[in-house]
Amino acid sequence: MRVLPRKAAQTIRLAPPRAKGRLWGGFRSRLMLSMLAVVLLTALLVGGVGFVRFQATLSQVAKQDLNSITSAVEQALVITPERVVLDPGRLPRLVELSSSRFRVMRGEQVFLEIGGRFPSESLNWLKTERLLEQGFVLQAALDIRSQNEALRAFWRTELLVLPLSLLLALVAAYLLVDYLMRPIRHLTEAAHAIAQQRFPKPVPVPPGQDELSDLAESFNRMTRAVEGFLERERNFSRYTSHELRTPLATLRVQIEALEQGLLTPQESLPAIKGSLERLERLLAGLLALTRSPQKDPEPLDVGIALRSVVQNLSSKEQQRITLKGDLGAQVLGYGELLQQALDNLLSNALKFSQGEVQVEVRQADMTHIFIRDRGPGVREEDLLRLGNPFLRLQPRVEGMGLGLALVRHITTLLGGRLEFRNRPGGGLEVILSLPGLEVRRG
pTM, whole model, 2 decimals? Predict the structure, then answer.
């Protein structure tokens, strides 16, 4: 038979985090460039619109001034068929003619010029004309060099302010991007740690109810869920390798004894059967300890769960149990898990005591279920250890040490807490506290 070579172990290499603050490339740089582009386009748009509005305002004011002065000059003209004369006495006192030029023409002949030589170019002059009597035409020109200079000064100011605006925008964008990237950086570092199976502290949730805060909260919930899954997997592997050795060793010894003829089948079958039953119970407990519920929690009636557990006990055990208190209280959880936790607690109380087991339900900030027995109790130094997997304080009593561990696991899943304390008169008191709902009477 041909033996295939074993494949070399493959190692998973995690890509290191990308370098921070690179000038080009990366989400951070693209975000900064996008913000700078927005600022630049906004500045150009605001400057362009402001320039157009300012130019339109100056043009409107110049036209109004030209029309006003032209009307005043027109009223001051004395027109005869042969000539046109300006009567200064008819001009209003407030009319200023120093920045304007006028001439009166008929055909190609100039009859009158006012304020100086009439300009021929149109670059720095605003011109208009009006028809007069006797076929004369009044032409007017207003000097608008001051308005053009004001427009150029406006544009120079815009060009000067634009680099300053970009510089301020660059600083603001850097600070803002750093502020916006901080939650994402925390998520990146936490995700890198989780990829290496190192579970960091919960990432800080940014203030405000927005997408980043929802993302941070969802990531924290995912981290807790993944950590819980891995912990349950480790527990299952650790507990399985720890506890399966004894029954498997017993089975091996019995089988070898049968093969060698040291024992008869009648002598080995009870031990083999007992080992198999122990394996079944052990696997059932381990699976229950390591799995998590797959459905949403629902309101559960504590009294109904207690009565259902008690009904599955023997008649002698039922007579030893007393139920009292607020049995109409409700909790939010999972029916199977709640009954499993109550069944384990009641079974423990019945197993380690011979007298009455009292169960009392109280409704306060949480729903508290008190289970009191009349057994020997537990040493004070061992109270905190109760609920650890495979802890057996009394080895003579049959059990695997998984019952209270399962109850503690279920309590954690239900969002409650589990406490143990010795009673002053003797016995152990277990307090199972679960998130409660409104009290409902049956």
Answer: 0.43
